[in-house]
Write the structure tokens for this entry.
Amino acid sequence: MDRHYVFLDVDGTLVTYENKLPESAVTAIKLAQKNGHKIYTVTGRSKAEMYEEILAIGFDGYIGGNGSYIESDGKVIAERSLTYDGCRKIVDWLHGKGLEFYLESNEGLYGSEYFAEKAQKTIQIYSARKGKEDADRLTIKDVFPEMIFGEDLYREKVNKISFLLDHYNDYLEAREVFSDFKVGTWGGAGETALFGDVALENIDKQTALDLLMTHLKKSNKHTIAFGDAKVDIPMLEYCTTGVALGNGGPEIKEMADYITDDVENDGLYNAFKHFGLI
């Protein structure tokens, strides 16, 4: 059996959008590792959001910040983050616009003064769009259980900064002001987007996988990627086989080589079995 390198998005792929981790996914990962396959998480989450339940699975590596940070076998392969001055520039602009936000770093998630209050409804809308029945009961504490408030928001080693969109024009203006950064949206397409984010240019999940496999001196011949959203598409394009979760969006399903079941309906386990990983 050939050893495969398996790359898993986290939210909507490994766990539900309420941070529920299916036991079948844990079983699949451990069985695949026992069979000699290497399993990596590839996520927009900073390491501070990789809570103990996830870390306890025991992955072979971790790629965070949508590619800005890479670990393999416990060693840091690459780390690119906003500078202190870059962070301060973005934070000052967001404060000036009256937009709430949070900093994503490996040391922690740092929320702005009124983020918990103002983001709750937005998070509920986001979860409802993902088909969650009890979305209207979610709190920021449910989604970001370890977010830190009241700390200095001028920081180093920040992977990216996500902010609430009051209007779509907030994103358009941010793109103009921060033309030397990568400015995107999430939580919806076009004017339905709920959040904007600012990160370093020329970083995505595909560039991270290429850097990792080059470091490991491996080709992408035996690689499989799993995802559910547009941000995962570059990763699926890089790998020999791309798998979309059943709960994924139409764009990733259209380009995937295979569509498995929803994350909470044993999607990972069933796909691992389908591809002979377990």
User: Anything to note?
Assistant: The mean pLDDT is 94. The chain is about 35% helix and 20% strand.
